[in-house]
Write a structure and sequence with these properties.
Blueprint: H1 8-15, E1 20-21, E2 31-36, E3 39-42, E4 49-57, E5 62-70, E6 76-83, E7 111-113, E8 116-117, E9 121-128, E10 131-132, H2 134-140, H3 152-157, H4 161-170, E11 173-176, E12 182-185, E13 188-199, E14 203-211, E15 216-218, H5 225-230, H6 235-242, H7 246-256, E16 264-275, E17 286-294, E18 301-304, E19 310-311, E20 316-324, E21 329-340
Parallel strand pairs: 4-17
Antiparallel strand pairs: 1-15, 2-3, 2-6, 4-5, 5-14, 6-13, 7-8, 7-14, 9-10, 9-13, 11-12, 15-16, 16-21, 17-20, 18-21, 19-20
Length: 342
């Protein structure tokens, strides 16, 4: 999850002039961590058990409630981190230049431990995948926040040739074939919220997060029948990323073909992402996991990769698992349709 990226299908239509809403998916999961010289490093949890996780995801609200247990006879104090996905990024990374940096200050106010508000200390990292390269980036002379500073290519051009080549060998910058080989940053900028948490002996604590996510999306893409017919491979990323099956494709086709008279129906995509994998860093699997995804409007379509999905209302879908070990990220695709007069 390259994380926040523009999918190839959407990219193809971008070149065709389709407008895109390029904002990043934003969600994450609690994990035990340690703060090292280079930043924050996830580590396997000690004796702390995540006995339950109740997660609700929609484009307007994310709400997650955890219950942690300390089964030992001693209090445990540890560093707990809540990692956010990186700052917006895409194949056409330069579209994000001059973008405002995300202000996460509101996030801390939506977190409670045993019903009481708690605060976090934000720590900013430069990461390539799961590798913390903050120290290397700061030593490079390049702007870490490449999306808000002067054009990145000017910073690269100002470097001595030998240093530029060294950074390429380090993997900090790379050539982008879509920009005629121009050198672009290889790292994302991610914010982690960190706190010291005490888990009392032979006790359980409840941790709750609730906030409004920043979502990504596109105005139309590979799901239009004409686009699929001309470029069948465009569907591959949708199937891999969102587990978009034939039922979703058929449902989209049905809606797109249901316009009245000379009217036309268009659709837009909303992407929401939740970082599940840190939930595996506690002692053993999550004993009781519940996920509810709300697609918003009954007329919307939704797809995400999770088995055992059960529809529980006109807009909500539930997954329940016992002894669940999460991996990777959960990506949710919501399709919205609008009829335009001809």
């Amino acid at each position: 999850m390259t994380r926040n990226r523009l999918f190839p299908a959407a990219l193809a239509l971008a070149f065709a002039g389709v407008a895109l809403t390029l904002t990043p998916p934003v969600l994450a999961n609690d994990s035990e961590a340690e703060v090292g010289i280079g930043g924050i490093v996830l580590k396997p949890g000690s004796a702390i058990i995540m006995s339950s996780e109740d997660l609700f995801i929609s484009e307007n609200k994310v709400r997650v409630a955890y219950r942690f247990e300390n089964p030992t006879d001693a209090d445990i104090r540890t560093t707990v981190a809540f990692p956010m996905p990186g700052q917006p990024r895409a194949v056409l990374w330069h579209w994000y230049e001059s973008q405002e940096k995300r202000d996460w200050s509101d996030f801390a106010y939506s977190t409670r431990v045993n019903g009481k508000p708690v605060s976090f200390t934000p720590t900013e990292l430069a990461v390539i995948g799961t590798r913390d390269v903050t120290r290397e980036v700061k030593a490079s002379g390049l702007p870490m926040d490449w999306f808000v500073d002067e054009p990145f290519d000017k910073s690269v051009a100002a470097l001595p040739d030998d240093k530029r080549e060294a950074l390429i060998k380090q993997g900090l910058i790379k050539a982008d074939p879509l920009l005629d080989g121009a050198l672009v940053p290889a790292w994302d900028v991610a914010t982690w919220f960190v706190r010291e948490q005490v888990f009392p002996a032979r006790s359980a604590i409840a941790v709750e997060h609730e906030y409004t996510p920043i979502v990504g999306g596109a105005v139309g893409s590979a799901l239009y029948p004409a686009v699929r017919k001309e470029n069948p491979s465009y569907l591959d990323d949708f199937r891999k990323t969102f587990c978009a099956d034939d039922g979703l494709i058929t449902g989209a086709d049905r809606k797109l073909a249901s316009a009245s008279g000379s009217n036309s129906i268009y659709y837009g995509e909303t992407w929401v992402s939740y970082v599940l994998s840190p939930g595996a860093n506690w002692n053993g699997p999550i004993r009781d996991f519940r996920l509810v995804v709300d697609k918003g409007d009954p007329g919307n379509l939704v797809s995400f990769c999770m088995d055992g999905v059960k529809k529980i209302s006109p807009t909500r879908f539930e997954v329940r698992k016992r002894d669940f070990t999460p991996t990777g990220e959960l990506r949710v695709l919501i399709l919205k349709f609008e009829e335009i007069e001809g």
